[in-house]
Design goal:
It is built from twelve helices and nine strands. It has 356 residues and is of the alpha/beta class. The protein has a nine-stranded mixed sheet with strand order 6-5-4-3-2-1-7-8-9. α1 crosses α12 (325-345). The protein is globular and about 55 Å long. The protein starts with 8 loop residues before the first helix and ends in an 11-residue tail after the last helix. The structure holds iron/sulfur cluster (SF4).
C-alpha cells in the first residue's frame, strides 16, 4: 500500500466543488454509464446498534440479515477504490463504533489518501478510542446527538444516556484543543421533526456546549428514509406538484455498500430494497456501472419514481427544481470538462457492459 501526499485544503475544496457540479451535470443529462467514479462510498461496517431510536429502520425492522463487515472485505473494497474515490463514510445502518477495527479501517483508508468520515451516537467512545479518533487520521467526526434537552434525547435515543453523551462530546472537544489538532472536523447533528423549532434547538445547543463548541452545529430536518417514515419535514409543501418533481442525484453521486457486500440503491436504502450488485467478488467500480445501476439512473432521470419500489414514497425527489439555467449550463460544462481532464490523465473508468 502506498501512502499518498495529502492535498492542500484549497485544492481539496476546489476539487470537491468541481466534482459535485460534474455529478449534477451527469444527473441532469441522464448519463447512465459513469466514466467518473462515485464521489463517496458509504460502508456499513456493522448493521447492529447499541440503542433503539424509534424512527430508525435498524430498530423498526431491517428485514435483512444483520452482521459486521469482515476485515478482508473492507481491504478488498479499499483496494478497489483507493486513488479513485475521494471520500469514504464508514457508516450506513448500525453504529460504527461497534466494529472492533473501526479505527484500523480509518487509518488504512487515510494512509491511502481517502477522506474519512464517521457518524456516531457517541456512547461507545472511551478515553482510548478518543485517542484513536485523533491518531487514526480521521477527517470528520459527526455526533448524532438528538438533544438538546434530556427529555427529548430520552424520547428519541431510546437506550441512550444523555449525560454520558454530552460529557463524551465535550471530552472530544477538550482533547482536540489540548492536542491543537486540526482534524477531525467535528459536527453535532440534531434531527428535528414537524412542529419543532430548529433555531431554538440550536440556541440550546450553543448553551450546553458553550465552552466546547464543535466546528459545526447541524439542525437537519427529518427525512423519510426512502419513504419508510412518512412524517418527514422536508419538501412536504411540494409533494404531488409535478413541477416540483426533481431528479435525485444519489445514483450518480455515491455508492452504499452493506456489511455483506451488497451495493444498495442509495444511502437511505437501509432495507436493501434495490441491489445493484455485490462487491465480494466483483470490483467495486464495475458494480458502479452494473446493468442494475444503469436502470436505476435511467428511471430516476426520467422521474419514473413510481416504477421503483425503493423511490416511490421517498421525499428527496420533491426537493423542487431550483437549478437556474445558468447553473445547469455550468454543471454540464463542469461534467464535460472534468471527464475530458480525467480522460487526458487516463483516470476515467473502463467501458462497462451496456444494459440492454
Ligand atoms: S429518490 Fe430513490 S435514490 Fe433518491 S434518495 Fe430517494 S430512495 Fe434514494
Amino acid at each position: 500500500m502506498s501512502a499518498r501526499k495529502p492535498r492542500s485544503k484549497l485544492v481539496g475544496a476546489v476539487r470537491r466543488a468541481v466534482w459535485s457540479a460534474s455529478i449534477s451535470g451527469a444527473a441532469e443529462r441522464g448519463v447512465e454509464v459513469m466514466t467518473l467514479p462515485p464521489r463517496e462510498v458509504f460502508l456499513e461496517v456493522t448493521a447492529h446498534c447499541n440503542i433503539k431510536c424509534p424512527m430508525c429502520p435498524v430498530t423498526t425492522g431491517l428485514e435483512r440479515a444483520r452482521g459486521t463487515m469482515r476485515w478482508e472485505l473492507f481491504e478488498k473494497i479499499l483496494d478497489d477504490v483507493a486513488g479513485k474515490v475521494p471520500q469514504m463514510s464508514l457508516f450506513l445502518a448500525g453504529e460504527p463504533l461497534l466494529h472492533k477495527r473501526i479505527f484500523d479501517m480509518v487509518a488504512a483508508a487515510s494512509a491511502r489518501g481517502v477522506y474519512t468520515r464517521i457518524h456516531t451516537n457517541v456512547l461507545l467512545l472511551t478515553e482510548e478510542k478518543i485517542g484513536k479518533v485523533f491518531d487514526s487520521g480521521l477527517d470528520e467526526l459527526s455526533f448524532s446527538f438528538d438533544g438538546p434537552t434530556k427529555e427529548r434525547y430520552d424520547r428519541v435515543r431510546v437506550g441512550g444516556d444523555y449525560d454520558k453523551c454530552v460529557r463524551l462530546i465535550k471530552r472530544v472537544m477538550e482533547v482536540k484543543r489540548e492536542r491543537r489538532a486540526g482534524k477531525p472536523l467535528t459536527k453535532i447533528q440534531i434531527v428535528y421533526f414537524a412542529g419543532e423549532d430548529p433555531a431554538e434547538q440550536e440556541r440550546q445547543m450553543r448553551e450546553i456546549f458553550a465552552d466546547n463548541l464543535p466546528d459545526e452545529l447541524k439542525m437537519v430536518p427529518a427525512h423519510s428514509w426512502a419513504g419508510e417514515y412518512q412524517d418527514f419535514v422536508r419538501y412536504r409543501e411540494n409533494v404531488g406538484k409535478e413541477e416540483k418533481l426533481s431528479i435525485c442525484h444519489m445514483p450518480w453521486d455515491r455508492m452504499s455498500i452493506t456489511w455483506d457486500g451488497n451495493v444498495v440503491g442509495c444511502c437511505n436504502d437501509f432495507l436493501a430494497r434495490y441491489i445493484n450488485g455485490n462487491v465480494k467478488t466483483a470490483p467495486v467500480l464495475e458494480v458502479w456501472n452494473s446493468p442494475a445501476y444503469q436502470r436505476l439512473r435511467r428511471s430516476v432521470h426520467r422521474k419514473e419514481y413510481g416504477s421503483l419500489s425503493l423511490c416511490a414514497k421517498c421525499d428527496v425527489p420533491w426537493a423542487g427544481d431550483s437549478s437556474a439555467s445558468l447553473r445547469r449550463s455550468a454543471n454540464a460544462a463542469a461534467y464535460t470538462g472534468f471527464v475530458a481532464w480525467r480522460t487526458l490523465r487516463g483516470t476515467t473508468l473502463p467501458e462497462p457492459r451496456r444494459d440492454g
